[in-house]
Amino acid sequence: MAERHKAKGRVGTWPGTAGIAAPWLRPLPGLAGPMAARLREWAAAEVAPGRLMPWLPVGFGLGVVVYFSADREPVWWVAAILAAIAMTAAYRLRTSPIGFPVAIGCAAIAAGFATAVVKSRLFDHTILLTSAYSVSVSGFVETREERERSDRIVVRVAAMEGARLTDRPERIRLTVRKGAAPAVGAFISLKARLNPPASPFRPGGYDLARDLYFQQVGATGLALGRIDVQPPPVTPGLRLNFATAIEAIRDGIDSRIRAAVKGDAGSIASALITGKRDALSAPVFDAMFISGVGHVLSISGYHMALVAGVVFFIVRAVLALFPALALRYAIKKWAALAALAAATFYLVLSGAEVATQRSYIMTAVVLIGVMADRPTLTMRTIAVAALAVMLIVPEAVIHPSFQMSFAATLALIATYERGIPWIATAPDTPLGARIALWGAREITVLTVASLVAGLATTPYAAYHFHRMAPYGVIANLLAMPVISALSMPAGLLALVAMPFGFDAPLWRLMGVGIDWMVAVAVWVANLPGAVGHVPAFGVGAVLLATAGLIIVCLARRDGFGRRRCRRGARRGRPAECRKVRQRHPVGTRMARRRRRRAIAERSRGGIGICLRPGRLRGAAPRRHSGGGEPHRGGPCRRLHPRGPDRDVARRAGRLCRQGA
Question: Which residue has the higher pLDDT, 594 or 310?
């Protein structure tokens, strides 16, 4: 206790829960002793130092949900003051083992609520309340969408005139005839019939008016007659000029793709590269979603990982051909930088939707971790991505793309970290090596990933779309390897070859893989029982499923890992400790403690371990060179007992002596 008070006065950090008899961790009346002890152990582990970070986006998202469930618009300055008070309380209680977790949770909820309120206030604009007919509109075209039977444009209004027109929105969304949509950046004049944004058709249904509000669109309508393109009376802004340039690039790529690949295959190829997926025919669109491969049409983590991975592999392989570079420089970091640049270009080219933003942020965090020699695929990665997306677009929390994307990613990372840790480990036995050589591991991983992602997104697909994909695993196993190995690499190479005019064969090669995927989707959609209709249900079931998914994926159970490590050490299996260590990322205080425990356990098993100098926070332990004998001396030889590693060296030496 005296040491803790001394540390408090010197540093002022949170001491954690070790040795603290918190009243809310005591056995509850009426509970059995083992059960209460297990609950105490789990609660202490969840609030330990370094464990609260993955829970911050949960509280932040809960605050955003609270905002959207309000009947009236909250007062923005009250929400801001409440968030400031909650953050101040969390800072003042940072040394309290009980108050800090509670305060940081309340601060996250208040911050999410305040972020949504403030953004709603900043995006406040005029909304059309009554319908208006034969309205003269002139303005700049900001976005253009091509659909199967019609086109759609968003116009930034410069002038608007009409009889009985009391409200004049800043932006309107208009439906025009197929092929009549002008280019982005054009100044147009037309007649239109305008209506207020549509409200949900049923309680809890899709709210178009809410989405258009955060896009600052105040009315929808239909273009009447001819659309005249006129010289702009004012110079368009920098944002519109940038959008015009990007749209011109997308249109050029789209035209080259459709010239080489006809029909639905060309539409899907354009959707994979440029994000334009509105021209796909209805039968193929329905077949892809019924079969469970419809996620290919939305540029998300799968596409971003493929783009970054292919660029990373190619750049690193090319640099490895030059020994002068490969032996003297960290070409892996150079490849990561090139992959990050390619992912950024792909984000801008594809339209930067919510799912694309989330996947880009996660990919950027992973690549930056590679450049900084830090662990990449962890819960902290998805936590940072979720916080970044919710700070930029808090309204995305109630969208199916955000919910399904993060649910699948959270479940996959949890499975990777704790469910099947052998994915990231090398085979330890000859049989395991032969199995890996035959590709059984890759097939198993793909099957498990499809099952996990499908189960995690099922509640949200049933709630929003009222259907399920019973044969989704079969369709993904048959279609995704071809898309990953053939279509996406061919599309990226076609982009590189496009300035030289040699892109047409590569687009056709990309279309071969897409034709296979469409054939699989149509075959699976025609199987008996492929269409799983789900009746509408309330939001309570979705909230319950979300809470269960978060608890299962974020809850940690270190006791099992420690027992497994001790059991492996007693049986002469140091690989068990390696697997346990890989399930928990390094870099936090608790991770370093787990690492020192693994050192002691392996020392008890007859294997002495020291840490590499200069890489104490991220490097893995290695054995002594003295024939596998445990180290019995003072501080470990590979650490500097008089340098900056003095304390760590002494603790490691003490653990080695205890293990001996």
Answer: 310
Q: Do the Cβ atoms of 475 and 447 come closer than 8 Å?
A: no
Rounded distance between C-alpha atoms, residue 269 and residue 163, angstroms = 46
The dihedral over CA atoms of 320, 322, 328, 334, expressed in degrees to the nearest 10, equals: -50
Same domain, 219 and 94: no
Given pLDDT bands bounded at 50, 70 and 90, which one contains residue 60? very high
For residue 586, is it within any domain?
yes
pLDDT at position 432 is 57
Q: Which of 94, 122, 150 is the last residue of a domain?
A: 122
Residues 169 and 74 in one domain: no
Contact 112, 57 (CB under 8 A): no
Q: Is the pLDDT of residue 405 over 50?
A: yes
Confidence of residue 437 (pLDDT cuts 50, 70, 90): low
CA distances from 253 to 114, 127, 269, 299, 349 (A): 41, 36, 10, 16, 10
- CB contact set of 345 (below 8 Å; sequence gap of 6+): none
Claim to verify: residue 351 and residue 453 sit in the same structural domain: yes
Q: Specify the pTM.
A: 0.72
Nearest 5°: CA angle at 638, between 323 and 647? 125
Query: What CA–CA distances, in Å, run from 526 to 291, 294, 523, 563, 617?
Result: 9, 15, 5, 49, 54
Instruction: Please name the residue that has the structure tokens 């599309």.
Output: 491
pLDDT score, position 587: 40
Residue type, 75: V
Condensed to tens digits (0 to 9), the pLDDT of residues 155-177 reads: 999 888 887 788 889 999 999 98
In the numeric block, the tokens 């309508």 are attached to: 221
Residue where the block lists tokens 């399920």: 468
Two tokens, residue 350: 């594809």
Residue 342 belongs to a domain: yes
* Element spanning 587, H or E: none
Per the structure block, which two tokens stand in for 343? Answer: 């992912």
Q: What percent of the chain has pLDDT over 90?
A: 17
Rounded CA-CA distance 515/29 in Å is 63
Final residue of a structural domain among 77, 102, 122: 122
Please state the domain count of the chain.
Answer: 4
| Cβ neighbours for 18, distance < 8 A, ≥ 6 positions apart | 44, 48
- From residue 269, give the alpha-carbon distance in Å to each of 278, 281, 292, 351, 509: 12, 14, 18, 15, 11
pLDDT of residue 510: 92
Give the model confidence (pLDDT) of 264-309 as tens digits: 888 888 888 887 776 778 888 888 888 888 888 877 777 888 888 8
